[in-house]
């Protein structure tokens, strides 16, 4: 098992790692009666009454001990998979989901994200810390228990490098943050806004890669998720994230959620050195959520060229119409009438078309009362103002 670098794309690839995680015969390893024996890296709110526990991953992609052993293989580079890989157990309730949690519980999960990023960034070996959640079987979730993951790597993921490069170039040309510009335009136009809460905004990106892709980010500029501005209310972020996930999980049962924050700025040289001069001004942390509504997509067969069958404006409108307080129900199955004369690709295209149409057309389901904060009236949905001239 090792990491190999593509000299053209500059991306690192983990090779030789088992993709299938064996399921223990004794049941879910994240449930309290089984995970309690594993030493926790972090427990919130306390060790005696922990909702959130962070533990080392049972089958880590990266090992924290030893040396990277960087070596050349002709013109290529490779190294050991040195890093960190942890599991954030979001709740002790096996049947709970992040979408169904209260604002307070979600805020506690976000606090765990921040604490682990801060702690891992203290290790000068690590250039980037990623927090993500793969929810549902189609997203590659290893267990049904609610959990997120944290990885710390000796390299910056390619997607982050793309964002850093674009943000720096935008700032050099305009002396403004591109993410701040995006938020201002999205709020001015309103047609892709899904929801807002306090200083935070959720919207479907102008060039969404998949149907119902949604970003959540703060209005106020900040490049570090783990160090929020003192005037920002993290509870507002928890409220908005919960409402957004409750909408999205009515559309799709599975999703990828990834937190993008700035890299570790301890490193004064190397591939990231040119970014440090303006990174505090040009980068902007954000959360990207990619629902999986298509069982097969051209996006996965032609990498870096995305095919989205649903306009982001339509996706945002549909999400705004959904009740953000309903219980999470599985997305309705897609029925496809098979024609013996159809090719496999034609059948798949038909299924994809029906999945998107069904997601857009299905009626809103209302099955659960509002969360406590919403009942108090301090978490009301803010409808966007549409500017027809924009």
Structure, described:
By secondary structure, the chain is an alpha+beta fold. It has a domain at 159-376: 2-Layer Sandwich (HIT family, subunit A), CATH 3.30.428.10. The protein contains ten helices and 14 strands. The chain has helices at residues 32-35, 103-120, 158-174, 178-189, 234-251, 279-282, 298-301, 312-321, 344-361, 372-376, and strands spanning 2-5, 12-15, 42-44, 52-56, 71-73, 76-79, 83-89, 128-135, 147-153, 193-197, 200-203, 214-218, 255-260, 286-291. The strands form two sheets. The chain has a ten-stranded antiparallel sheet, sandwiched between helices. A four-stranded antiparallel sheet has the order 2-1-6-5, with no helix packed on it. 36% of the residues are buried. The model is unreliable at 329-353 and 358-390 (pLDDT under 50).
Write the layout of secondary structure elements.
Elements: E1 2-5, E2 12-15, H1 32-35, E3 42-44, E4 52-56, E5 71-73, E6 76-79, E7 83-89, H2 103-120, E8 128-135, E9 147-153, H3 158-174, H4 178-189, E10 193-197, E11 200-203, E12 214-218, H5 234-251, E13 255-260, H6 279-282, E14 286-291, H7 298-301, H8 312-321, H9 344-361, H10 372-376
Antiparallel strand pairs: 1-2, 1-6, 3-4, 4-7, 5-6, 7-9, 8-9, 8-13, 10-11, 11-12, 12-14, 13-14
Low-confidence stretches: 329-353, 358-390
How are the strands ordered across the major sheet? Answer: 3-4-7-9-8-13-14-12-11-10
Q: Considering the protein shown, what is the CATH homologous superfamily of the domain at 159-376?
A: HIT-like
Structural class: alpha+beta
Query: What share of the residues does DSSP label as strand, in percent?
Result: 15-25%
Overall CATH architecture of the domain at 159-376:
2-Layer Sandwich
